[in-house]
């Protein structure tokens, strides 16, 4: 176990010295300047490559990421509009059901009133005895006119 403690102590000392040195190197403007320039150049190169790739695929007729994102956005908008329309439809269905039930109640009242009027009218009218109709005399046919003779013109 003594060996382990010795090795562990040496490792900890090396780690502390290395961490101190790496911190100084990473803060050094001699490293940060060129590293920042390389990172900027790499980012610009990647952006240009992505743009050229998207242009190439777009010219080939393949939907690129930008097109897919635009279509996805439009699908989400359509889904939102559809949900709004479904809510409006549900409200209108409720209104129609309310109107139909109100009309059914009104029709029931009108039918009851009509039956009452018919009953009162039937009770107020005296019952009439059917009268005999005299036999109808057949009408004579008018006499046919004699056919007219055409005169021929002579020259």
Summarize the structure.
75% of the residues lie in helices and 0% in strands.
What is the helix tally? 3
What is the residue-averaged pLDDT? Answer: 86
In the predicted model, the low-confidence regions spanning at least 5 consecutive residues are none
Number of domains: 2
| Rg on CA atoms, Å | 53 Å
Shape: elongated
Q: How much helicity do the residues have? A: over 70%
Regarding quaternary structure, what we see is single chain
Helix and strand run = HHH
What does this structure look like?
With 155 residues, this protein is mostly helical. It has two domains: 8-61; 63-123. Helices cover 75% and strands 0% of the residues. It has three helices and no strands. The radius of gyration is 53 Å and the shape is elongated. The mean pLDDT is 86.
Could you name the key traits of this structure?
single chain; 155 residues; mainly alpha; 2 domains; elongated
How are the SSEs ordered, and which strands pair?
Blueprint: H1 2-27, H2 29-59, H3 65-124
């Amino acid at each position: 176990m003594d060996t382990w403690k010795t090795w562990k102590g040496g490792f900890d000392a090396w780690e502390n010295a290395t961490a101190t040195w790496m911190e100084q190197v990473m803060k050094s403007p001699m490293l940060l300047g060129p590293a920042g320039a390389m990172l900027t150049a790499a980012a610009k190169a990647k952006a240009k490559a992505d743009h050229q790739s998207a242009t190439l695929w777009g010219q080939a007729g393949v939907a690129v990421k930008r097109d897919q994102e635009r279509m996805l956005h439009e699908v989400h908008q359509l889904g939102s509009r559809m949900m709004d329309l479904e809510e409006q439809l549900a409200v209108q269905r409720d209104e129609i059901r309310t109107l139909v039930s109100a009309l059914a109640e009104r029709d029931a009242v009108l039918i009851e009133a009509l039956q009452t009027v018919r009953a009162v009218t039937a009770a107020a009218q005296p019952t009439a005895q059917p009268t005999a109709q005299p036999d109808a005399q057949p009408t004579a046919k008018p006499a046919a006119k004699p056919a007219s003779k055409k005169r021929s013109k002579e020259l």
